[in-house]
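wait is this the right file?? whatever heres the structure
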């Protein structure tokens, strides 16, 4: 499966927008033309999207195998605001892959994206969007791996594993070990809910401030 996915997800590298399915091209063009939402509103008014990806293979041979998204608004996880696609078995239908990728653009709608270890998630997404759809996918990321130590320094002074955060913050029903991507997104949602409460307590009250805090924490801690 890994070899097939790797061949498939790299096939669009040279075809450009003109080579896309007409529906996919229209979706991508509509997404490009859509305005990004303001990040100056309070957290309560902002739609965040939790993102996790599935990969197949190991190390440098790992390839994107699926994407999951889960919306958060007013501090609540929204089960009806969810997205999932699985590329397993898609070798026989490359247009379906492009349609799923385009559908995720529409779903995310340029909202700030929340994940754990954004370089891993962002790297896989940027590569496949560039190669298949000709899209320079660079959303505004909020990285919980770096932001949690910044807002909860009494729990951990540096980035630690996701399961360690779940234990330290007392999140129940989150046994350690391997989780599917949707379960992982739900776990990230629980962490993010707690982070928003702490962020407000520290006067980090808007999405823009949260994105900036995440970027600053990442830069600072990587230089220590």
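ok assuming it is, sequence goes like this
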């Amino acid at each position: 499966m890994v070899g097939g996915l790797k061949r498939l997800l790299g096939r669009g590298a040279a075809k450009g927008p003109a080579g896309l399915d007409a529906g996919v091209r229209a979706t991508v063009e509509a997404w490009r033309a859509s305005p990004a939402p303001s990040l100056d509103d309070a957290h309560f008014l902002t739609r965040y999207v939790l993102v996790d990806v599935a990969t197949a293979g190991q190390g440098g041979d790992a390839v994107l195998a699926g994407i999951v998204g889960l919306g958060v608004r007013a501090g609540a996880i929204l089960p009806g605001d969810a997205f999932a696609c699985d590329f397993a078995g898609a070798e026989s239908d490359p247009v379906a892959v492009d349609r799923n990728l385009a559908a995720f653009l529409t779903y995310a709608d340029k909202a700030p994206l929340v994940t754990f270890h954004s370089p891993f998630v962002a790297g896989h997404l940027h590569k496949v969007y560039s190669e298949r759809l000709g899209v320079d996918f660079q959303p505004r990321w909020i990285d919980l791996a770096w932001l949690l130590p910044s807002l909860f320094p009494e729990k951990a002074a540096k980035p630690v594993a996701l399961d360690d955060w779940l234990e330290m913050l007392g999140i129940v029903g989150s046994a350690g070990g391997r989780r599917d991507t949707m379960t992982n997104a739900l776990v990230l949602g629980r962490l993010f809910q707690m982070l928003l409460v702490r962020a407000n307590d520290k006067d980090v009250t808007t999405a823009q401030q949260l994105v900036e805090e995440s970027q600053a924490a990442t830069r600072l801690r990587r230089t220590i």
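The longest helix spans residues 181-201. so i think its the right one actually
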